[in-house]
Amino acid sequence: MTDMLLSINGDEYPVVVDTRETLLDTLRERLDLTGAKKGCDHGQCGACTVLVDGRRVKSCLTLTVTLDDREITTVEGLADGDRPHPLQAAFIAHDAFQCGYCTPGQLCSAVGMLAEAAAGWPSVVTEDVCAEPVLDEEEIRERMSGNLCRCGAYVNIVAAIGEVAR
């Protein structure tokens, strides 16, 4: 067990964690931040995606002890007070969810993906890796491919992200 001070959504959380404990379990079981979901527990579905220093990570594969002096953002921290994040508003407007189980991971992944594209990072389908990425449907689908939706709401998810990207 080790004492830690986690910075999550702009707040500090003192916590004692087992050195083998995942961030997902710390968030859900110790801190009652249940937005990130335990889908596959193998890093394959993306339901547990959160941001660490603005980069998307699968919290089911990330050990909590590795996050000292790092800023963690969960879906609970995306909104600005009562004002939803633009992606949250777009997901609602485009009906980009059905059961909603994957939605927190989709949202955090989309926030990280937009930041990656804004920084000029290419993806596998980027035609000219030296040019600014163009977030068309193919590019968004590729960049979001680590997040699965069992309901198949991909068309609306891509449309919502595309609206915010423009």
From TrEMBL:
GO terms for molecular function: 2 iron, 2 sulfur cluster binding; metal ion binding; oxidoreductase activity, acting on the aldehyde or oxo group of donors. It comes from Nonomuraea dietziae. This is Xanthine dehydrogenase YagT iron-sulfur-binding subunit. Residues 2-78 form the 2Fe-2S ferredoxin-type domain. It holds the Pfam family Fer2_2. Keywords: 2Fe-2S, Iron, Iron-sulfur, Metal-binding, Oxidoreductase. Pathway: Alkaloid degradation; nicotine degradation. It comes from the Bacteria. CDD domains: fer2 (cd00207).
